[in-house]
Amino acid sequence: MTYADFFADIKGRFLEADVSDITEHLAYQFNIVGDAEGIFYVEVKDGVLHVEPYEYFDRDAMFTGKAETFMKIASGKLDPVLAVTLQKLKVEGDIGKALRLNDFIKNKGKK
Question: Closest Cα partner for 60 from 31, 20, 89, 29?
């Protein structure tokens, strides 16, 4: 899988989430290691979700892991907290805001 293929897929999965009830600003950077290596960010601003293939310097949290791990998280097949516990995902930054990633996953398809 190339980074372009991965990003197109993961962006679509994230954009299925309803974030209209999230009023705080959240910004996450995702660092993909191994196959499909690259960077992208997810931002919630004014209840709108943005997913872009760039580095985000003013991020609240940064996640590092394999593309496979991020796909499982985005599809709801792997809880992000469990991924950290299993050492499949590394998190840096504001842990409280990082935990809000679960809100995206739980609200998928509820637009």
Answer: 29
> Is pLDDT at 105 greater than 90 in this prediction?
no
87: Cβ–Cβ under 8 A, 6 or more apart, which residues?
Answer: none
Contact status, residue 22 vs residue 104, Cβ threshold 8 Å: no
Residue whose token pair is 């992000």? 80
Sequence-distant (6+) residues with CB within 8 A of 32 are 3, 6, 38, 39, 40, 65, 66, 67, 70
pLDDT tens per residue across span 7-61? 999 999 899 888 888 889 999 999 999 999 999 999 999 889 999 999 999 999 9
Residue partners of 55: CB distance under 8 A and separation at least 6: 29, 39, 41
* Side chain identity at residue 2, one-letter code: T
Tell me the whole-structure pTM to 2 decimals: 0.91
